[in-house]
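pipeline: protein-struct stage 2 | run 1193 | Tricarballylate dehydrogenase
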Amino acid sequence: MTDGLSGFDVLVIGGGNAAMAAALSAREGGATVLVLESAPKDFRAGNSRHTRDLRCMHDAPTPVMSGAYTEDEFYKDILSVTGGKTDEKLARMTIRASTECTEWMKQYGVRFQHALGGTLQLGRTNAFFLGGGKAMMNSYYAAAEKRDIKVVYDAEVVDLDVVDGEFRSATVLIGGRTVKVSAKAVVAASGGFEANLEWLKEAWGPIADNFLIRGTPYNKGKVLKRLLALGVDSVGDAKAAHMVAIDARAPKFDGGIVTRLDCVSLGIVVNNKGERFYDEGEDFWPKRYAIWGRLVAEQPDQIGHCIIDSKAMGQFMPSVFPPLEAQSIGELAKLMMLPVDAVEATVKAYNAAVQPGTFNHETLDDCKTVGLHPEKTHWALRIDKPPFYAYGLRPGLTFTYLGVKVNERAMALMKGGGRSRNIFAAGEIMVGNVLGKGYAAGIGVTVGTVFGRIAGREAALEALNCEDRVVAKEEVAHYAAS
């Protein structure tokens, strides 16, 4: 199993979208490539197998996206969700390079759906994979096999040998044996540390015990932690994360996207005291859904409860689990095991504050409340048509933002202002350069694809010591230019 792991030009650590984009890109550049995936084959591809789309800039309709989504609008969306915590140069470079993503992915067998319509608000901004993220990743792995990219599963990188910013080898646990794997360049694309429960508790304290991990249990953050210990500069902080509100009945790990709840903007959310705590109609759901995980995490016992009525049913993507159902708010409160009087009072006050308006879930409509704290600013409809429904909400952690700092070549930067010589990074392990906080649907796959391609190409050039490196720099500069 451990034979034939020497002599490769580029080592890619990780097995998700960013890793395979890097591997394929490095192979395009003529490099020999080894991919180390810590998961078994049946669970390969990390969080990428749970994805379904990527966000792309385009100035006109495409076969898979409607309308136009300009650079400035895309960047405003990033500013909106991050509150300005982004590297503008790298963010705009990502946006510009996203125009090429779908066509590049199609070369490797990835197929896309036609542009979506309806309440998701994503048909104009996002391209959706036909068959979802698992189909995308299966296409990548099939393409890698055809191109003689070697993939080793159940291969956990437990240490790195880096001297003065130069990668020399990785220590890998394979089949119970420890193996040294050397390469001329390395791409770290092994994700964040969201599956490392002890590290989460170091950052968040005991409330982390109530977090559910939406994705792979294999993202332990060992490569990230080792790189930071070896002098690679960091970006972001340990509490920054893509965290959404998911069904409280989801499993501890790997529940995936089907456990997400998209009904919040159509109802109200209360905590264990039966009290509302945030504006459910602040903005379109694809831009604001990712704030709700942290909001729920800040509530007692890290749980919330979304309450809707019959008018809302059928207007959102349902969870994999059915809701609680009752003919009255009081009966529903009992099913939720919440104080009945408090829940009834909250719903009564909310209904009284709802103003007349024209409901339209595809616009920032004029259906709002007046006189509440907090107000509901859009899509406020009275909760008055039985049966009534409720979903329990828990913080669902997707990935963490603490990562390694990179430049426009995806090269890891060292503490003190220097740069590594042959260490590159892509995907969740460096997403904090673009997303300091918050999230907009599909942008994680975009960052992974763009920086995966750059990291793979640059690693190949570094490994092969090509004179073409100057050409690659000019290509990067095209996207990085202001």
